[in-house]
Design brief:
The chain is an all-alpha fold and 180 residues long. The chain is built from 9 helices and no strands. Helix 2 packs antiparallel against helix 3 and helix 6 (98-114) packs antiparallel against helix 7 (118-134).
């Protein structure tokens, strides 16, 4: 790929995206063969390349790369970095895989909680709950918002989470209400 870049003597987002794809394919293969450390390093390299692609070519090209990353998330390739999982979730969201997005965000929430990062835990939990609201899964969203409000009562988003509990329950009631 480096040789092709040099021979082109011009920026090539397609070639750079192909490089990201090859890194992610190698990570997939390593993860299947229990080379988890190598797989994580390859995913990290792919993310660094994606950051460069975003800087050099813009949102369109990085979004295409995130779609490739979303495929790894769907396959549960071992990743232990909330930032990577968030990028994976972004790709899943763009693909329209809302259930997969929530599942990946749950993985990121769990890791953030294990690292003691309350701010990230709340942000990611709020994001997952908001996606459930978009999908009209009001009962599940209300439970998530209630957990945020109860567990992180001193967080700046706690009042908003309490409001969202009431909103979700109201929406659920409106959907289930039978006309008399």
């Amino acid at each position: 790929i480096e040789d092709a870049r040099k021979s082109l003597k011009a920026p090539s987002p397609e070639l750079d995206m192909l490089y990201v794809q090859s890194l992610l394919e190698l990570a997939r293969d390593q993860s299947k063969g229990q080379g988890n450390l190598i797989a994580r390093q390859l995913v990290t390299s792919a993310l660094q390349e994606m950051d460069r692609i975003e800087r050099d070519y813009g949102l369109y090209w990085v979004s295409r790369c995130e779609l490739l990353l979303a495929e790894l998330a769907a396959e549960n390739v071992l990743v232990e970095d909330p930032v990577v999982l968030v990028r994976m979730a972004d790709g899943q969201f763009r693909r329209g895989d809302r259930a997969g997005t929530v599942k990946t965000l749950d993985r990121a929430v769990k890791l953030a909680r294990e690292h003691g990062d309350a701010k990230q835990t709340v942000e990611l939990s709020f994001r997952a709950a908001s996606i459930q609201v978009q999908e009209k899964s009001f009962e599940n969203a209300a439970e998530r918002f209630a957990q945020i409000a109860g567990t992180y009562a001193n967080h700046p988003k706690a009042p908003q989470a309490q409001f969202m509990v009431a909103y979700c329950l109201g929406q659920q009631y409106a959907e289930e209400a039978t006309p008399e």
